[in-house]
Write a structure and sequence with these properties.
The complex is a heterodimer of chains A (444) and B (238).
Chain A lengths: L30 H4 L2 E2 L2 H7 L2 E7 H10 L5 E4 L8 H11 L4 E4 L3 H13 L4 E5 L2 H12 L8 E6 L14 H5 L5 E5 L2 H15 L8 E6 L7 E7 L3 E2 L33 H20 L1 H8 L3 E4 L6 E5 L2 H15 L4 E6 L1 E3 L3 H7 L5 E3 L8 H10 L6 E4 L11 H13 L10 E4 L4 H10 L1
Parallel strand pairs in A: 1-10, 3-4, 3-5, 5-6, 6-8, 7-8, 12-13, 12-15, 15-16
Antiparallel strand pairs in A: 2-9, 7-14, 11-13, 16-17
Helix pairs in contact in A: 3-4, 3-8, 5-6, 8-10, 11-14
Chain B lengths: L3 E9 L4 H14 L3 E8 L7 E9 L14 E4 L3 H4 L17 E5 L8 H9 L3 E5 L1 H9 L5 H13 L4 H12 L8 H13 L3 H21 L20
Parallel strand pairs in B: 1-4, 4-5, 5-6
Antiparallel strand pairs in B: 1-3, 2-3
The chains are: A alpha/beta (444), B alpha/beta (238).
């Protein structure tokens, strides 16, 4: 906390928080961007001194893009959105992003991002809620085309009727695309994961898109402390010439999207090739683990789990709420550990099996109805832990998650008494009493 | 153990509920603590319900979203209770056991029998505090009601001091501060016109705040280490 705090983004309207054009009108608006110095990712992530700023999640994403040597950013202002792409537009004005435009809608944006990445440049976009689902056809095709991209998903409600508050059900649609998916807890994670995302997605043995998700509104519109490196530094540029996949040669038409035609033919060979292709995509997801460990310090973080019988496992904003639940439990004399899952794809299966081996109770709070994280956790540790798993509390449609609900689940899980919130949670796991489950099924 | 208060403020449009919560939040941060706020309101018009959720602590705050189970409830206007002008009904919904309800009223209010019984069940402390009266007496107008309440709650939580509060008022009215909305900006200019000069405005607001602070101390609502704030704000205790 001894670091000095600087204010490059003064409080107030994000539009006016841009550095005002100085009186010297002839001055090159790109001058500062041109002075940026390329440094290695290792230096930028681990060594470069950082200063603390109090900014929104959208501003944190903007600052990450500023330092990421981005070539192309394409925006579509879906409602509900975050201010992120608007702020990235400001970066374009300042010369930090080389090309920027507004797409006609998400199908077009995701297709154009694919074209940009295929042509060998570093691409960034952000969308939210219904926009994610509209763009999903394109997004789901990125991994198969082996396109390094970073896309930010500021989760909102996707179901009708529409709401603008967060509900991270859209993450469950992204989990099976073959892309790498991170889930940011706060503004700091937005900043770190975005920059690490560019580096990891362009590794030759990965060559996949990275989705950085956060629970919109809570993270994008609220301020938090973010420790950032000097804005005079940036990541090395994308070097597509030595990438794993040849870039589109747009200067020598006709340009071919696919080098090997059989992938598009309908015969047995094509199916086989497609199957192998999918295997390779998911193998690449696996290979990204080492880079997530190198640049982000692991797929999860664990606190006080060593001798804890009760562990809360959470991602995104639910992890923030869980930190407070751990504190409240401590005040009540209960020792509770916390695991925050940062990377959903690849999923920290091995880590969870080790950390949960001795746990008796696992509680998985979530900001969605279906409980995708609880299902992931149960699948990962099946056969490796006898813990009773409580999938809950769950809030959705934009509800806040009172910390007291998490504490309630922990207490009910330990005591065996019915939690007041049980209708919103699920009981799973090895040591579960079948009668208890039956009673639960009857009572909902 | 960490000092931590989750505060739900409920009032009506025009009273400065959101402004008050910004000032308390800034004041706690000025005094070295941590704080977050979540304002919640619908139509921006006078007398429409407004809520603001403030978390104050002497250590890091991770929690986000509205506060469902507050330690402290502040009622800015008696109509929140009598007319149900609130997003949370009844006004004490979710109040934790041994919690505090600080109510702006000149004396104890007659609550419905069931409500009084429920409040007693959870051992709620009901503090009736004549904030509007203090504002009228000290500043000559009711617009500083929120300042009286923030002074009072600052003393009750013990997480800030009069210096921190005074600085927060200055930040609000002199700095490039936080503009909550167009409606608030318009109200700000009305307030400023009424006080003629900004300096006078700040002095009056701080005087109301100090009166609120001292009211809390005099009534024994604070912990013993919180002392009265004397005239020159610089002499305020930590």
């Amino acid at each position: 906390m001894s670091e000095t705090e600087v204010k490059t983004n003064p409080q107030g309207d994000p539009i006016t928080s841009v550095a005002a054009p100085s009186s010297a009108a002839k001055k090159d608006p790109h001058a500062e961007a041109k002075r940026q110095k390329v440094v290695t990712p290792e230096y930028l992530f681990h060594e470069a001194p950082r200063t603390k700023e109090f900014i929104t999640g959208s501003e944190a994403a903007k600052e990450a893009v500023r330092r990421s040597n981005v070539d192309l950013a394409i925006a579509y202002p879906i409602t509900p959105q975050s201010e992120t792409m608007q702020l990235v537009g400001v970066l374009y004005g300042e010369g930090y992003v080389k090309e920027y435009y507004r797409g006609e809608e998400e199908v077009g944006v995701m297709a154009a991002i694919a074209g940009g990445s295929r042509s060998g440049v570093r691409c960034y976009t952000a969308t939210a809620g219904p926009g994610t689902l509209r763009g999903l056809e394109g997004i789901a095709s990125w991994p198969g085309h082996r396109l390094p991209v970073v896309a930010m998903f500021t989760c909102r409600v996707v179901n009708a009727p529409l709401a603008i508050q967060p509900d991270n059900i859209e993450v469950s649609y992204l989990l099976n695309c073959g892309m790498i998916v991170f889930h940011a807890e706060n503004q700091q994670d937005m900043f770190d994961f975005t920059m690490a995302g560019f580096t990891i997605s362009e590794k030759n043995d990965v060559t996949l898109p990275v989705g950085v998700c956060c629970d919109g509104f809570f993270v994008t519109h609220a301020r938090g402390y973010v420790r950032m490196q000097d804005r005079g530094f940036k990541l090395p540029p994308r070097e597509a010439w030595r990438g794993a996949v040849p870039v589109l040669d747009a200067e020598n038409p006709p340009a071919r999207l696919s080098r090997d035609a059989p992938v598009q033919k309908s015969n047995f060979m094509a199916y086989n090739i497609h199957a192998v292709w999918q295997q390779e995509v998911w193998a690449a997801v696996e290979r990204s683990r080492k880079y997530i460990e190198r640049y982000m310090g692991g797929l999860l973080t664990a606190e006080n789990v060593d001798d804890a019988e009760v562990i809360i496992i959470a991602s995104g904003s639910a992890a923030a709420q869980s930190r407070e639940a751990v504190r409240l439990c401590k005040e009540k004399g209960m020792k509770v550990g916390l695991i925050k899952v940062r990377s959903l794809r690849p999923f920290p299966t091995k880590e969870l099996r080790e950390l949960c081996a001795k746990a008796k109770l696992i509680v998985v709070p979530e900001f969605n109805y279906v409980g995708w994280l609880a299902k992931e956790v149960a699948t990962a540790i099946y056969g490796f832990s006898k813990a009773k798993i409580i999938g809950g509390p769950r809030v959705y449609g934009g509800q806040s998650m009172p910390v007291e609900l998490i504490v309630d689940e922990v207490e009910s899980g330990v005591s065996g008494k019915k939690s007041t919130n049980v209708a919103m949670s699920q009981i799973m796991g090895g040591a579960v009493n079948p009668e208890e489950v039956e009673q639960f099924m009857r009572s909902i | 153990m960490a000092k931590r208060f989750n505060i739900r403020m409920a009032g009506v449009g025009g009273q400065g509920v959101v402004t008050g919560s910004h000032i308390l939040s800034t004041a706690v941060i000025n005094a070295g603590g941590e704080s977050t706020i979540v304002p919640f309101y619908g139509s921006e018009k006078r007398m429409a319900p407004v809520e603001s959720y403030v978390r104050v602590s002497d250590e890091a705050i991770y929690e986000i979203g509205e506060i469902t189970f507050p330690h402290i409830i502040i009622i800015f206007h008696p109509q929140v209770i009598t007319h149900g002008k609130s997003y949370t009904m009844p006004f004490y919904f979710g109040l934790k056991e041994d919690g505090i309800a600080l109510i702006n009223n000149d004396g104890p209010m007659k609550l419905h029998r069931d409500q009084a019984a429920e409040l007693q069940e959870r051992r709620a402390k009901l503090y009736y505090f004549p904030a509007t009266k203090i504002s009228l007496d000290v500043a000559g107008m009711d617009l500083a009601t929120n300042m009286a309440l923030m002074g009072c709650i600052g003393a009750i939580t013990g997480l800030t001091d009069m210096n921190g509060l005074e600085q927060a008022v200055k930040d609000r009215f002199l700095g490039k501060g936080f503009v909550v909305s167009g409606g608030t900006a318009a109200l700000d200019s009305v307030v400023e016109r009424k006080f003629k000069k900004k300096q006078e405005l700040i002095e009056k607001n701080v005087a109301v705040m100090r009166a609120g602070w001292n009211y809390a101390v005099d009534n024994g609502w604070t912990s013993p280490d919180v002392k009265r704030a004397e005239e020159p704000a610089a002499a305020a205790t930590a």
